[in-house]
């Protein structure tokens, strides 16, 4: 068949190649037109995005320059707010403050305070505190005397000794706190003692960096204190601040602010960078400065600037496009979006899509025409081959029983009286004639059903009776012993009795032809299906059907090739079975098949009562 189709295939191939080359060339032209149009829109957008990026870099650099003094001041003074500032120096983060109390529940500072309070009353104290407490009692006595000069001298002597003999924070802080509480007299509290709460000692008394006041000292010492100790000192410092009417709101705010968390920087930083759209950082030699920024406000300002310069329409806006956590300001990923540009791009894509669809439709139409031409030619030659094969097969099948009938008849006529073995010749003549009759009946029935000329005569058919008829049909038609087993009980089918007989006869004869066992075992089982009808399983013990052939065996004139002696047949048996089931609005298919045999599943519609 391929040789017959070759001229048609060559002509269609060359035609499709020429058409394909033309369509591809046309599509390239359409694609280039789209790219040119998109490039014009893109170039304006890129220019505006570069301008917006430069404006953003300038605005952020100016903001850092303005805020840098406050940032540096927050590093030196723990009472100053540090929210929104970032400083990393030699690998240590100073801002935002991440000072957490050390782990544990011990309270050495609170214990020291309690011990000193008792020692102040009974005079018993460890060595480091004996002189301090002695001087503290002297200052308290001078304060009670009302002599300002004496009080000032005693307090100054106490503070000089205190500055000259520093102690660890868990001892220094409780003593300083006790000293302030012991000497505070409201409005009459000495100025040097009042200064110990917030401002710290004067420089000549060891103040400034070393002793900037209780509020600052406890914040700086926080990592060396446990949480219970820190809470104890913080509460008493707030109390004494209130008693002395010293500002303490900033101290409370810094207590709540401390431990806000570390800011993780990506490595390496390539110049000024935006982090998580919330922080702007500038790296230097050994440090990194940063500010918390409101990107929404900055982008809104950029949008207003571009609108004011008539670079974008009133409905346009500047926004951050998709990007990672870290955005180098060299390429911040700004997008300038306007509905007009989106509409222009959509229009470009729509025109391109329409042209592409036209090209694709032309290609599909040409391919469909070529495929239809090939299918038509193939069907034509296939029909011719099937017709030839059918004529050849039917001629062979008709010739064989006719030759047998003629030979057996002549022999019976001449030798019936002389040869005892000729006694079964009449039976063999009848069997050959029956085979011929069955073949002709199959052909005629197939033709009538295929042409829609069979008038279905449905009736109640008992399956047990149909199985009995099958026994009679096979007894006279085949030479091999057949054993039929049935498990159909009293199932009835709403079907044409003659077609059911023909259906079972074809399945039974096929089972006998494609079989190498003796006896041939046929099993018919019925399973009623509520609401539909019944499923009949017709099983044999034949050679089986390969899985890839399960559907092909139902094709017209298709004959299965099996190992062993040639099997005669017209290739219409299973094709006729499928048409019979289709006429009953049922179905037939191979349920299972293997070396042990084949099972066909026949599904009949519901019986009408």
TrEMBL record:
Keywords tagged on the record: Kinase, Phosphoprotein, Transferase, Two-component regulatory system
Domain of life: Bacteria
Molecular function terms from GO: phosphorelay sensor kinase activity
First-level EC class: transferase
Enzyme Commission number(s): 2.7.13.3
Residues of the Histidine kinase domain: 393-608
PROSITE patterns associated with the record: HIS_KIN
CDD domains membership: HATPase, HisKA
Listed InterPro entries: HATPase_C_sf, HATPase_dom, His_kinase_dom, HisK_dim/P_dom, HisK_dim/P_sf, Sensor_HK_Regulatory, Sig_transdc_His_kin-like_C
Reactions that this protein is recorded to catalyse: ATP + protein L-histidine = ADP + protein N-phospho-L-histidine
Record flagged with keyword Cytoplasm: no
PANTHER family: HISTIDINE KINASE 1, TWO-COMPONENT HISTIDINE KINASE
Protein name from the UniProt record: histidine kinase
Organism: Corallococcus carmarthensis
């Amino acid at each position: 068949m391929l040789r017959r189709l070759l001229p048609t295939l060559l002509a269609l191939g060359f035609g499709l190649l020429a058409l394909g080359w033309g369509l591809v060339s046309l599509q390239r032209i359409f694609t280039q037109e789209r790219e040119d149009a998109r490039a014009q829109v893109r170039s304006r957008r890129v220019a505006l995005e570069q301008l917006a990026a430069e404006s953003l870099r300038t605005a952020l650099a100016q903001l850092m320059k303005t805020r840098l003094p406050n940032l540096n001041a927050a590093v030196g003074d723990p009472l100053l707010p540090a929210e929104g500032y970032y400083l990393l120096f030699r690998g240590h983060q100073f801002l935002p403050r991440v000072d957490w109390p050390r782990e544990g529940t011990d309270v050495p500072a609170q214990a020291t305070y309690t011990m000193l309070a008792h020692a102040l009353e009974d005079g018993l104290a460890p060595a480091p505190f004996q002189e301090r407490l002695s001087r503290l009692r002297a200052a308290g006595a001078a304060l009670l005397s009302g002599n300002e000069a004496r009080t000032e001298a005693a307090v100054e002597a106490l503070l000089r000794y205190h500055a000259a003999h520093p102690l660890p924070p868990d001892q220094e802080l409780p003593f300083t706190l006790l000293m302030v509480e012991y000497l505070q007299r409201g409005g009459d509290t000495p100025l040097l003692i009042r200064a110990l709460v917030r401002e710290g000692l004067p420089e000549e008394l060891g103040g400034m960096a070393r002793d900037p006041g209780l509020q600052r000292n406890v914040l700086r010492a926080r990592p060396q204190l446990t949480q219970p100790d820190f809470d104890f000192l913080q509460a008493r410092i707030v109390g004494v601040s209130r008693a002395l009417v010293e500002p303490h709101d900033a101290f409370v705010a810094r207590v709540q602010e401390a431990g806000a968390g570390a800011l993780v920087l990506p490595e390496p930083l390539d110049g000024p960078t935006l982090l998580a759209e919330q922080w702007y950082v500038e790296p230097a030699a050994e440090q990194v400065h940063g500010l918390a920024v409101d990107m929404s406000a900055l982008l809104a300002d950029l949008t207003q600037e571009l609108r004011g310069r008539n670079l974008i329409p009133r409905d346009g806006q500047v926004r951050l496009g998709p990007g990672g956590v870290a955005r180098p300001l060299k390429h911040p990923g700004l997008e300038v979006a306007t509905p007009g540009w989106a509409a222009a791009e959509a229009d470009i894509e729509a025109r391109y899509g329409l042209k592409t669809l036209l090209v694709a439709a032309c290609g599909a139409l040409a391919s469909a025409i070529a495929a239809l031409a090939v299918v038509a030619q193939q069907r034509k030659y296939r029909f011719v081959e099937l017709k030839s094969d059918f004529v050849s097969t039917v001629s062979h099948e008709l010739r064989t029983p006719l030759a047998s009938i003629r030979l057996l008849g002549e022999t019976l006529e001449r030798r019936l009286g002389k040869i005892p073995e000729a006694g079964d010749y009449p039976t063999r003549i009848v069997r050959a004639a029956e085979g011929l009759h069955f073949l002709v009946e199959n052909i005629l029935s197939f033709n009538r059903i295929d042409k829609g000329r069979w008038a279905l005569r449905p009736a109640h058919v008992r399956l047990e009776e149909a199985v009995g008829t099958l026994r009679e049909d096979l007894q006279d038609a085949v030479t091999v012993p057949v054993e039929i087993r049935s498990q159909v009980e009293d199932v009835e089918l709403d079907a044409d009795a003659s077609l059911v007989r023909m259906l079972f006869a074809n399945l039974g004869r096929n089972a006998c032809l494609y079989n190498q066992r003796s006896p041939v075992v046929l099993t018919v089982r019925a399973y009623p299906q509520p609401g539909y009808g019944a499923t009949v399983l017709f099983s044999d013990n034949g050679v089986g059907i390969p899985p890839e052939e399960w559907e092909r065996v139902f094709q017209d004139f298709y004959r299965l090739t099996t190992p062993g002696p040639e099997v005669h047949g017209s290739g219409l048996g299973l094709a006729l079975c499928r048409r019979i089931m289709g006429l009953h609005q049922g179905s037939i298919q191979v349920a299972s098949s293997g070396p042990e045999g084949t099972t066909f599943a026949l599904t009949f519609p519901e019986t009408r009562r």
